[in-house]
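Today's session is about reading a structure prediction critically. Students often jump straight to the picture, but the first step is always the sequence itself: look for stretches that repeat, for charged clusters, for runs of hydrophobic residues. Only then move on to the predicted structure, which in these notes is written as discrete structure tokens rather than atom positions. Here is the chain we will use throughout the hour.
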Amino acid sequence: MKISTQRIEVLMLEKGLTLTALSERSGISRQSLGTIRRRQTCQIATAAKLCKGLDCDIHDIIPPEYAREV
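Below is the predicted structure for this chain, in token form.
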């Protein structure tokens, strides 16, 4: 699934989260978060974990051009 790393960064800044804090809250390792940010893709289950950690909706991290697919 295509995700917007820019939107994730904005949400992290708004919530005052570091990469380590997001890792702890989402249950995704820092290494995996780095890979997700670099590739700008992840599995749907991983996107759900990201949303849990960011306390947001899945549509908040998907680029607008891909939002219709979800």
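Discussion point for the tutorial: The mean pLDDT is 92.
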